[in-house]
Each structure stands twice: as structure tokens, then as C-alpha cells.
Amino acid sequence: MSTPRSADYDAIADRILAQADRLASCSEGPRDITRTFLTPAMADAHGLLSQWMRDAGMTVRCDVIGNLVGTLPADASCAAGQTPRRLLLGSHIDTVRQAGRYDGVLGVLVAIAAAAQIARTARRVSVDVIAFCEEEGVRYRAPFLGSRAIAGSFDLALLSRADDGGVTMAEAIRSFGGDPDRIDDCSYRGETLIGYVEVHIEQGPILELASEPVGLVTSIAGQRRASIRFAGAAGHAGTVPMAVRRDALVAAAEFVLATEELARETTGMVATVGTIEVAPGASNVIPGEARCSLDLRHQHDEIRDRGFAGLRETAERIAGERSLGVTWTDTDRADAVPMDAELTAMIDAAAGGGLPRLASGAGHDAMVMASLCPTSMLFVRCAGGISHNPAEAVLAGDVARALEVVVSMLHRVEEEASIG
Ligand code: GLV
Ligand code: MN
Ligand code: MN
Questions:
Q1: Which ligand gives the minimal distance to the CA of 220?
Q2: Domains of the chain from N-terminus onward
Q3: How far away, in angstroms, is 103 Cα from ligand 2 center?
Q4: Which residues line ligand 1 (CB under 6 A)?
Q5: pTM for the whole thing?
Q6: Distance (Å, rounded) from C-alpha 88 to C-alpha 66?
């Protein structure tokens, strides 16, 4: 049975958009939205979100890596004598540099608003809303740090990795009030979990082209990331003849073009070199060093892996032809992940049926959470499919529909818990 659409959802959606506007001001700079892992901007966001979680009837805690968790506990009388089952909702609150205001944040705000709708009803099921502290991988060039801690798959070796300012992850966690020696405490392994459901803007054009406000995700494409460093010889821009130069940036440029060519030639592949740093970095100095990133994705892991291995060989060939050194470092790998068919079907049924299905090219915390419990995602249409861009936009009516779907699902979960 789906919950009838109430005009309240439109008013709440307006409030969610206003909250997203307020979170947008929690930024590392005044002119754009940049909120990376464990920065003062993230602490500011925690301040706002904690208040909104409490207003929604939740108790709030920050775990030792920096995930903010709001809990709506199961009603004591319903839970007597049995361990309450737990449903997890959420998304991430870190951003890329110069981000839009909805990537990640929207899912957290919809989850809080949905929890508020059931806060005053008797509950057999506990609901946790998790604002993951790190999904984008900006500060430490490693994504999904928050969800990996929750899923019990956090790689402790990352704790010694330094950011661009030389601050190690362990130091950053301590300065934020966390404890890098107790990351295992974040894990939900061993809990009786019903599942994890994440609302997220689509970040692509499919729903808009189909004139659909929301859709359910079938699977999430895998991704691999690497950091590639070409090492040549710095020299004088006016004196070193072209024939004897060992210019690291030109090698990186050749690599960028080879990457684009591979992805253009391989159906379904997307590849991005999103950062490039040159040293020493002066207009009259031949670049002695160039370091770039690679992000490569495909719905099929074997095609992606073949492309990734091929690009590594390409980087080595380019370096060899130009008498340069090259260091290739794999920085992350996440295989393609299907969403849980049963949980997805339950959400669809709770929402009245007929929600469109689509695949995700973007990565999400849901990829990691799927290793912990049944996981599903609801996408919300976004204007022009634009994301990772300040122009990200959503319609209030679409947010209202997403909220309605999630509230219907929460009611369905309670109904199922009361029978079983
Ligand atoms: C997350 O936004 C990603 O897909 O990189
Ligand atoms: Mn993103
Ligand atoms: Mn996101």
C-alpha cells in the first residue's frame, strides 16, 4: 500500500532545498562549494545536520572516522525481547572541488525528512540516517572512506597517506575528534540489517529524457583510479634544443590523448584525467615532472580492467620513447555492483509500482554498502543531467516525489516487520 501523496511533501521539499542552500555555505572558500573530508567546512555541515536530525526526533553521534549518524530507535515496547532490526538511509556530505549543492547532500536531507515522518509512530525497526564523511576521494585520492569504515572494509594502510598539505589521514581524523586506532568501531558488521537505501541525484540525463521524476537503480558501474608520474629533466626553456628535451608534461599530454582515444573507441567506457600537476611549474622552465590522475569506468569489470592495463602499457611506452621515467600507482578499485533486486522491488511496490529503472555511471556509497547488506538506490532527475558542477539543479516536485517514495518504503518496512 503506498502512502497517499500529501501536499505536505511539497512544503517539506521546499524546506529540503532551503537546507541544501544552507549547507552550500559550509565550504572551504567563500566563492564556491568545496567541502572535503574532515575540514572545518565539514564540521560546520555537521553542526547544521545534527540540529536537523535532532529536530526530526533522532539521537545523533559522530563515529570515529567522521560519519554523522542520526538514529530513530525502535519503540521500546515493540522491541522487548527481540533485537530490533535496523534500516540504513543516507548519502555523503563531502564534495568535489567547485561542486553543486545536491550531489550527496540531497540524499541525506531526504532521509532526515523521511525519518521525521515516522518519528512519532510506534516502530519495530530502528532507522539510522548516515551522512557519510567521504565519498569523492578528493583530499586523500581515495574514495568511499566513510562507507568503507561502516561496511568494515576500510583499508587501514590509508591512514598514513598524506594530503597535499602533508597532513596524514590519521592526523586529520584525530584533529576532527576521531580515533584512527578504532576505525573498526564504525563497522555495522554483525548488526541485523534490513538494508541500505540511498537517494541521490541522477547526475545524468536519462530521467529527464524520459520525463520521469525518480527512478530505481539496477547497478552501479565499477571504476579504477590511478596516479601516474612522468619524470623527465627540468631545463632552460630558451637553451635546451627540442631534440634533446625530456619534457614530462608533453608525455602526460600524449597519455591524456591516448586515454581519450581508448574510451571513445570502447563502447560504454568513460575515462577522465581530472588532475595534472607540473613541477617545477614556471613558464620558462621545461617541466621535469608531471603527475596526473586517471579515472576509468565501465559497466563490465573485465572490459574496464583490460582498458586499465592497456593504458598502463601506453604510459610505459610513451615514457620509454621519450627517455622518461614513469611511476604508476593504483589508487582505487571498485567493481560494478548490482543493486538488491528484492529490496528494489519492495521500494517499487511501496511506491505504487512502475518506477523506471536505470544504471548508474557514477560511483556511490551504495557500492560499498552492498557488501554489508541488501542495498538499493533511488535517483532523482537533475536538470540537464549536470553534476560535479555548480549548475546542479533539481525540481522541488521531484524531491517531494522522492520523499514520498522513501516514506512509503518506511511504512512498508514497518508493515513487514509487524507480520514477520
Ligand atoms: C562520485 O561522484 C564518482 O562517481 O566519482
Ligand atoms: Mn560526486
Ligand atoms: Mn555523490
A1: 1
A2: 7-220+336-419 (3.40.630.10), 222-334 (3.30.70.360)
A3: 6
A4: 136, 362-363
A5: 0.91
A6: 17
